[in-house]
Design goal:
The chain has helices at about 1-15, 20-25, 35-40, 50-60, 65-75, 80-105, 110-120, 120-155, 160-175, 185-205, 225-235, 245-250, 260-285, 290-350, 355-375, 380-405, 410-430, 440-470. By secondary structure, the chain is mostly helical. The longest helix has about 60 residues, at about 290-350. It is globular.
Amino acid sequence: MYTFLFGIVLLIVGYFTYGKFIEKMFGVKEDRATPAYTSGDGVDYVPMSTKKNSLIQLLNIAGVGPIFGPIMGALYGPIAFIWIVVGAIFAGAVHDYLTGMISIRNRGAHLPELAGKFLGKFMKHVVNAFAILLLLLVGTVFVSAPAGLLYNLMNGWMAMGIIVTLIFGYYILATLMPIDKIIGRFYPVFGALLIISAVGVGGMMLVKGVSIPELSLTNFHPDNLPIFPLLFLTISCGALSGFHATQSPIISRTTQKEGQGRKIFYGMMIAEAIIAMIWAAAGMALFNGYGGLNEMLAAGGPALIVSEASTMMLGAVGGTLAILGVIILPITSGDTAFRSARMIIADYIKFPQAKITSRLWIAVPLFAVSIILTQVDFNILWRYFSWANQSTAVIALFVGAMYLFIAKKNYWVALIPGTFMLMATTTYILNATIGFGLPMNVAYIGATVISIFLVVLFFFAAVKARAAQIPLEEDITNWKGLQFNE
């Protein structure tokens, strides 16, 4: 219990201390016009309030990741708490803040465009393909997961195919419509339900005196699987997630002032980490330890854990509301995954999106591919998603480090977590059966060599980029706009 509570306190303190440090180091320009005004188009570039942007950002980034991931990570025991807390404060929230703020400084640019500017034109093409792949995987996973939860919640009275069709129908509308018509209008309500459900489960565990395991050297390590790198890919969205790098630019196009960035980007990552802590604790405490949790996962996966934990803690009615909150999470990330993919492709091919027919030309093929992917086994999709997700986080952190290096600011805040995750993702793909299948000791050596080489390459490129004086932000000196207030 004390490990869990101390972790929650550290997350809150981290927002007010390290978050403030990152904001001050980055250097907010309150008088600089944001893309919501300089590029306003009534579709993707629409100014919205801090509260609305914060709740949308939370729902965008918090898919099933901060629930399913921590539940599976709970097999490692309380050490999962350490990764969630340390990862969120020093990696995930920094990742989200830098991605969002650098995007604001560059016309709301998405990660591929930022990678092209700060890591070279070749990386723009690589990251563009990588980001679209990730978003397609996310969108597909976030159709399958909520559809399964809804099917169980309704005891199978509605066919799975109909549920999937309805979710896809919603995704199409949310992808095509102006951001303030559906997402901006309904997400604040969904956000409230999400927070209430998570706080409800966590609060009742405390009220009922549920025994949450404390950190020790003996109560983790499932089936002798290595903590590194597996834990750091299993728990992603609650600690560090590259998917967030595809979502923050959506809100960078609706943010009114740069000073709102810490609440929207850094703060919502901390909020997501608190959600992850609650579900990790539920997984560890409510099913008779590692053995019981493992059996439940084998029987019905994380979705079964969510259903059982919600009902156990909140009763039939409260549990149903909590499950609905969890169902909302992937749906409200899946729609913005497709929206982000549409925007990235449009930016890449320079295809204006003001007309709905232009949006359809891009969106229809995306949904067609996703429908095909729904036929692939969920567990296989999740493994590829986990690796692609954290590899995207590495790219985003290196973009942030390059930006800060060129600006002669503290680039280590991004480079250190970026290098750590580079080592983790490389080790995983070298060892995993979905990768190269090498023995773990060989994977460790190979990942170390590759990571050192890429970091050295980064410094060579960074020195060259600083000498070339690459502009860090879009020139808006000729922009003529009205004064604005929240």
